[in-house]
Amino acid sequence: MSQSTAPAAKTRYRPETRLVHAGTLRSEFGETSEGLFLTQGYVYDSAEQCEARFKGEDPGYIYSRYSNPTIAMFERRMIELEGAEAGRSTATGMAAVTTAVLAPLKAGDHVVASKALFGSCRYVVEDLLPRYGIASTLVDGLDLDQWKRAVRPNTRSFFLESPTNPTLDVLDISAIAEIAHAAGARLIVDNVFATPIWQSPLALGADVVVYSATKHIDGQGRCLGGMILSSEAFIAEHLHNFMRQTGPSLSPFNAWVLLKGLETLAVRVRAQTESAGKIADVLANHPNISRLIYPGRADHPQAALVKKQMRAGSTLVGFEVKGGKPAAFRVLNALKIARISNNLGDAKSLVTHPATTTHQRLSIEARAELGISEGFIRFSTGLEHPDDLIEDLTAALEKA
Length: 400
Fold this sequence. Notes:
The protein is of the alpha/beta class. It has two domains: 70-263, 3-Layer(aba) Sandwich (Aspartate Aminotransferase, domain 2); 272-397, Aspartate Aminotransferase, domain 1 (Alpha-Beta Complex), CATH 3.90.1150. 39% of the residues lie in helices and 14% in strands. It has helices at 15-21, 47-55, 69-82, 93-102, 119-131, 144-150, 173-182, 195-198, 232-246, 252-263, 265-283, 303-309, 324-334, 364-370, 386-397; strands at 86-90, 110-114, 135-139, 155-161, 186-190, 208-212, 226-230, 289-293, 316-321, 339-340, 350-352, 376-380. The protein has a seven-stranded mixed sheet, sandwiched between helices. A five-stranded mixed sheet has the order 8-9-12-11-10. Helix 13 (324-334) crosses helix 15. The longest helix is centred in the C-terminal third of the chain and has 19 residues, at 265-283. It is globular and about 75 Å long. The N and C termini lie far apart (58 Å). Mean pLDDT is 95; it is low at 1-9.
């Protein structure tokens, strides 16, 4: 591989430019599109060079579980987009979450996390960590006093997502970061619902940011992937050897697909957010909806905080259908354009019933505490014309 021909990292280009050019490497063939290096291993000019690679004295590649040119381009582009010092990609979003949370910890440590988490994230905190002697405490993420009261002498990490999945609560990242740092702990933020286009957790005080690249970053329903972004010290001390030895590696092919997705991320997220806002405005007054949640509206419970820490709303809209699960299912089944799926951030509009899918493992009481009622629906806005989506939703709501 030749040296990067992308704009120099020291020049602070705007996000759209970084999404197209950052981290690009070109081979001797001078390809326009990033090269796809589908290789497991690498050969060496000599035994001495091989030894130097394994000692870390030679910067070349060793094995694609460790690093790969295509994966390196994706990681560098995400690093420059997020404004991080370093980052590592993973095979899935949950691999990113599990690695970021688990790798720095040991038996006897303690984690504080918001109760409002994606079902699998909550499993990691609530069920998996305690199996390895790592205690966890779940708090109402909106209540700063609960974060403070949950701190113990052995607290090492805070973990949250904002906006939350699926009820779109917005947590005060800066304030929670201050509490974490005062306790000598790090703050890990899942930024999937906001995307790097609308929110920058590191600039707000977070120490680690994680993404499911499966969502908006790919954005077209093609592949799985994840990303962890943080300081060089965190990556080197906690992630480098952990990932090298345990292998939650992103495939080169998926890295290439995600690179292509990044080129259009800003365009897609802006269009989807604009449509989501229009949908929310129409649904807010629908007689068959008892509650609507959208971070871009003035009636959002944390509207002032949204303006403070986000650059715009979200591509997601949450609403509660009157009549519970039977009514919600009738609405889901009546949709013609939006398709039932547990994914989000896709070019196609997708609709989910969290109580029976992403959060079904939680008890009825736990779901009720989080505001996930039997009638609650999560709508992920795609790239279809907003008027078509509104007509589809309003027609389906008549079936409720």
